[in-house]
Amino acid sequence: MTDPISTRRLVLRKASEIRDDVPDWVWTYGDHGRIARGTVALFAGRPGAGKSTAARWFAAHATRGTLEGCWHGQPTNVAYIAREEAVEYIVKPSLRAHGADLDRVFFPEVEVTTETLGQEVLPVTVGDMGALNDALIAAGVGLVIVDPLMALAGAKTDINRNNEVRAVLDPWRRLAEEINGVVIGVAHLNKTGNGDVVAGINGSSAFGEIARAVFGFAKDPNDEDGGRVMSQEKNSLGDESLALRYAIESTEVRTDSGRVAELGRFVILGDSDRTVGEVLRDAARPDDADEGTERAAAKAWLAERLGTGVHDSGEVKQDARAAGFSERTLQRARRELSVTITPAGRRSTWSLPTRATDALHGTRGTGGTGGTGQKTPGQSAIREPMPLVPPVPGSTREAPVARIARCSVCGETMVFGEDIAAGHHFSCREEEAL
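The structure assignment produced for this chain is given below.
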């Protein structure tokens, strides 16, 4: 049988003959479109950040029709291709924990029958895309999650070669268009320290180039409430200004066996004043990068900024950035000043503890300035922290660490030079005398 003869003809189309339009947004947040219909999106993060859990949160909302966007009020079927986590022990229980309609979730598999081995069940590969496309359209699937997307590349694919990666990813782009839905790929980030999430996706740059939307996920070590950060790092069709705090909360679900499983549940806490890129850049800095004068300056600045009042933590962080202090340095200064953190809705407030406030304003018993900012003879309104003492080269004795000692009365850390010299907080000695 010979191949049919084909012809090729170049055609020029006028722009006036093409009907343009605006995208349909499968997910909107903050009055802006985040993931467009007919596209590939990536959830990228380091191991343990919660990106797979977030994908299952997304899938659960799609099955219930509760996603804000063009599917709102229209429950949508989901196909979940899991290559690293067990469907029976992790994926399905996690979907259950997020309240998914399990009748709307499908796990694509390939059945292979041979004379020698009989019937086998194998994972989906790129070679199955034609059959997968037909099956998804027949089942009314609008959302496909591939977790992780890298696993579909295959052992023979060089993930660092752009052309080879594009050959693997392009079928998923076409699939999103064919089902008029969305393909979400879960991707891992490498340990690059420049904070560029899109460029930091493991493998070729083609991963970030083909995706129309990329979201980063990261643990935030500087979040006083243990929150994490999710931010939109790419949106080719819309606004990128999305940064959210989220948590992975433990929840119990009863499985089909009757036994109870404990799973993590993705919960959005509210807006974040930091992006994933900023979190990764701070985490990549050396531990001692903000030692010495920078941290001492940050403590003095923070003590003065907080004064005797209660302040919104977000405003303090914003002012600190404007003053040139990194989030990492600010948080270390906060801990060393024993700043009191009080939850206030989805945010929190910061204030100095009583003793620190007394020290700040020079109040010793009843003889202080009462926060007026005036100076008593020989005393500044704000006492400067004792500078760090570097170790003595060649010394066999252990060098003092920043001359920071503990108060002989309350046992708390002392940060001001005159307190350290006296061996106690002045306010503590006054309280003891009373």
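Interim note for the steering committee: Residues 162-178 form the longest helix (17 residues). The first strand starts at residue 25 and ends at 29.
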